[in-house]
Amino acid sequence: MKSFNGSITKLTSFSILLLFLFSCSTFTSTEAYDALDPTGNITIKWDIMSWTPDGYVAVVTMFNFQQYRHIQAPGWTLGWAWAKKEVIWSMMGAQTTEQGDCSKYKGNIPHCCKKDPTVVDLLPGTPYNQQIANCCKGGVINSWVQDPSNAASSFQVSVGAAGTTNKTVRVPRNFTLKAPGPGYTCGPAKIVRPTKFVTADKRRVTQALMTWNVTCTYSQFLAQKTPTCCVSLSSFYNQTIVNCPTCACGCQNNLTAPGSCVNANSPYLASAVSGPGQSSNTPLLQCTSHMCPIRVHWHVKLNYKEYWRVKITITNFNYRMNYTQWNLVVQHPNFDNITQLFSFNYKSLTPYEGLNDTAMLWGVKFYNDLLTEAGPLGNVQSELLFQKDMSTFTFEKGWAFPRRIYFNGDNCVMPPPDSYPWLPNLSSKPVISLRRPFMTILASIIFLLAYV
Ligand SMILES: *[C@@H]1O[C@H](CO)[C@@H](O)[C@H](O)[C@H]1NC(C)=O
Ligand SMILES: *[C@@H]1O[C@H](CO)[C@@H](O)[C@H](O)[C@H]1NC(C)=O
Ligand SMILES: *[C@@H]1O[C@H](CO)[C@@H](O)[C@H](O)[C@H]1NC(C)=O
Ligand SMILES: *[C@@H]1O[C@H](CO)[C@@H](O)[C@H](O)[C@H]1NC(C)=O
Ligand SMILES: *[C@@H]1O[C@H](CO)[C@@H](O)[C@H](O)[C@H]1NC(C)=O
Ligand SMILES: *[C@@H]1O[C@H](CO)[C@@H](O)[C@H](O)[C@H]1NC(C)=O
Ligand SMILES: *[C@@H]1O[C@H](CO)[C@@H](O)[C@H](O)[C@H]1NC(C)=O
Ligand SMILES: *[C@@H]1O[C@H](CO)[C@@H](O)[C@H](O)[C@H]1NC(C)=O
Ligand SMILES: *[C@@H]1O[C@H](CO)[C@@H](O)[C@H](O)[C@H]1NC(C)=O
Ligand SMILES: *[C@@H]1O[C@H](CO)[C@@H](O)[C@H](O)[C@H]1NC(C)=O
């Protein structure tokens, strides 16, 4: 009777946990802002540095204040609508994608006459006389946590047919930021206190004549992307490997989209990878049941008396993508007490006061900061060592598995919680520590055989 009652309670709390996990994961896919980075934004600062006979010269800088979301190749695209009949005489460190109709100009032809110019960064290797500081990285911007020294991108623009005083000049409207797809929404440009610049020798401070700020925020919901990443789970105490949910990021469909994926052992692999779509970076996925470009595997590897150990493996299934500067955000209650982390960088994220169950992980420079294309080398691994808090630690109810994982800022699809590997029920409490060495060895062997 007693054990019956016990299992009922266990079952109930398990389903409560399931419910909680479910509501979390459904909530995140529709929310308009990111709960793990509530103030994350990209701020565009527009500093007017000097007036010209018919306008002004401005330095425009984009600061990526997002903790973990970066902009990767092929980079950002910035657009706006002029308030009057402004033109761009010239640019440094960036260019507009189209010149537009400059036919009414004779002699000096502007760089761009469009009412709604679209600007892109220049590529690395641009001649020095066309560069300014923080430019020319092909539109790639790193995240604030990962590399603040590369989290900004700048260009200089010389605007004509504009106002030439702080009373006649007009703020551009309708800023659009693409990275390069949709997802960002930009607010109106606001006049703010002029930026102050300190000279290199720190002996003089100059200031902009006028400064406007625009704030852009990201929403995965707006980006309307299909998921790009999924999570699989395993543990030493149960030989079940819970794979990513089937069709987590799409389905293999031979009828409507033949060739949407390619088998790893296909004789046509090489020709498919270099086939049409190679230049446009169209993803070419290895055929899997989940069809995700990225899989994150969380393996509960070892149990010590006061510690436990997890192995994380990130695998790339896209034959046409090298992920530079990749990052992972992981939420698990034991991150408040992480003891050691091997071969990844780590920073605790505290989106709210007192909440420190979230960590950002990323690769070590020149070692594993590049997650290479699908294939035998297309994975990175790390192990985490947590100290147990005896009052909360348990292998039951899926507690040892992550609550959520983001790869490059995108929410990864988790397996349904009721499929998580279970602790064999006969060894609920004391048996674990008794049987630990045997179980551990057995499990490592199983894991090695099954997974390597
Ligand atoms: C943008 O991010 C910065 C840095 O985190 C923050 O100080 C600022 O308040 C944010 N702006 C908005 C409008 O959220
Ligand atoms: C314009 O400049 C004048 C004098 O330099 C200053 O008093 C005024 O506040 C400025 N207006 C704006 C909108 O910056
Ligand atoms: C800005 O966008 C709004 C709504 O999309 C539009 O009504 C307005 O005309 C645009 N303004 C300019 C200057 O293009
Ligand atoms: C404007 O943006 C700059 C750089 O992002 C920031 O330092 C400054 O605080 C912002 N000003 C306001 C009023 O938000
Ligand atoms: C698609 O084709 C592959 C290989 O030909 C096959 O293994 C797979 O089952 C097919 N999928 C569907 C949905 O028919
Ligand atoms: C990925 O990087 C490797 C090594 O730097 C390179 O050989 C390969 O062509 C790259 N693949 C893609 C798709 O960019
Ligand atoms: C996490 O937060 C708790 C309570 O707010 C605090 O006691 C603990 O030291 C924090 N841990 C870390 C690693 O910051
Ligand atoms: C980590 O856990 C141990 C054991 O419960 C505890 O003594 C220690 O204070 C914890 N450290 C933090 C930072 O929470
Ligand atoms: C392992 O976990 C699965 C759930 O994923 C469960 O069905 C199975 O019974 C567990 N195995 C043991 C030995 O407890
Ligand atoms: C363990 O599970 C088996 C079958 O799943 C069940 O018959 C047995 O009563 C369970 N034992 C305990 C102690 O809950």
TrEMBL record:
> Which PROSITE patterns is this protein grouped with?
PROKAR_LIPOPROTEIN
UniProt cross-references to InterPro entries, sorted A to Z: COB_C, COBRA_pln
Which residue positions does the secretion signal occupy? Answer: 1-32
Q: Where is the COBRA C-terminal domain?
A: 228-421
BP GO terms, sorted: cellulose microfibril organization; plant-type cell wall cellulose biosynthetic process
Recorded hits in Pfam families, A to Z, give: COB_C, COBRA
Q: Does the keyword Signal apply?
A: yes
Q: Name one GO cellular component term.
A: side of membrane
What the record says about family reads: Belongs to the COBRA family.
Cell location: Cell membrane
Name the chain's protein: COBRA-like protein
Tell me the keywords, alphabetical order.
Glycoprotein, GPI-anchor, Lipoprotein, Membrane, Signal
Superkingdom, according to UniProt? Eukaryota
**Membrane topology of this protein:** Lipid-anchor; GPI-anchor
